[in-house]
Amino acid sequence: MIAIITPVFLLIGLGFGIGRLGLFSPDHVRGFGRFVLLVALPALVFNALANTHISQVLRADYLVVYGLASLGSMGLGYAWFRLAAGCDTATAAVRGLGMSLSNTAFVGFPLATQLFGPAAAGPLAINLLVENIVIIPLTLTLIEASTSQHPHIGQTLATIGKGLLRTPILIAILLGGACSLAGVSLPPVLAKPVAMMAGASAPLALFTIGASLAGVSLHGRRGAIAGITVGKLLVHPALAAVLLWLIPVGDPVFATMVILAAAIPTASVFPIIAQRADDVETTSAALLVATAVSFVTLVVVMGMLGVHLPAHP
């Protein structure tokens, strides 16, 4: 397990160290992140899905388990921060998001492709759909409903929907799935550059995570930081495990990934969304703590799942 996790966190640590040295400005780091999200990661998703049989991608059992686990973790987080901690609706929604939104793009893909290669494309694509079509829009809707004197939920959902249609990752999922369904392959002159861009995704994503965390302060509400961290790294995967027991997922890769994906730390977009609830300081600190602590928790989860690197001849 250490052999799997260590390269991931070494690249995160490299980015963090270089970020602390100030070799790249915050604008540079944001540019790296945009390249990953807009170019490299969509190329990786498309390439993986287009070369995978559609039956290995579309699994309703995985969608139900991961979707319910994410909604359950978000709901528990929202209830805790709203009722027990006394937060307002927007803050509780954002902190619930932190307990349910995995960093699939920047950590999930590098980790899962090490373990399962192209077979990881199916579960990871479903994760992205759940996170971008269900979890994030639900959070934004709750924030809009709580912060606006005259909330327009329908207008908010329409705006979110239009944005989703322009999201490169989701476009890549649709195009890759269509190619898989039709049995169409890109000609070599196009397939090669797509594969080259896909290869840039994992290392640059991990480096970007570290560099973006370099400027984060640990100031904030310690109880909230601990609650978000525990919720994301322990509650979310525990819910996935319980649901997996209730709703078995037949494919072993999908069955492993549903728990492993839930154990991945919070997505880097978390503090950006938290700006709408004026909770950036606490959520940024929680993102840093959860990412650091996940080095240990992911090793434990992978040990419990019996995950190991594939043997190479």
What structural keywords apply?
313 residues; mainly alpha; Na+/H+ antiporter like fold; globular
What can you see in these coordinates?
With 313 residues, the chain is an all-alpha fold. It has one domain (2-305): Na+/H+ antiporter like fold (Up-down Bundle). It is built from 13 helices and no strands. The chain has helices at residues 2-21, 26-50, 60-84, 89-98, 104-116, 121-147, 153-165, 168-182, 188-213, 222-246, 252-262, 270-274, 280-305. The protein is globular, with a radius of gyration of 19 Å. The two termini are 19 Å apart. The model has no long low-confidence stretch (mean pLDDT 85).
Ends: how far apart?
19 Å
CATH topology: Na+/H+ antiporter like fold
Number of domains: 1
- Percentage of β-strand residues: under 5%
Task: Tally the helices.
Answer: 13
The main pleated sheet reads as: none
C-alpha-based Rg, rounded: 19 Å
Mean pLDDT, rounded to whole units?
85
Helicity level: over 70%
Q: What oligomeric state do these chains adopt?
A: single chain
Q: Tell me, what is the CATH class?
A: Mainly Alpha
- Give the low-pLDDT segments: none
CATH architecture: Up-down Bundle
Q: Give the overall silhouette.
A: globular
InterPro entries: Mem_transp_PIN-like
Membrane topology: Multi-pass membrane protein
Subcellular location: Membrane
Keywords: Cell membrane, Membrane, Transmembrane, Transmembrane helix, Transport
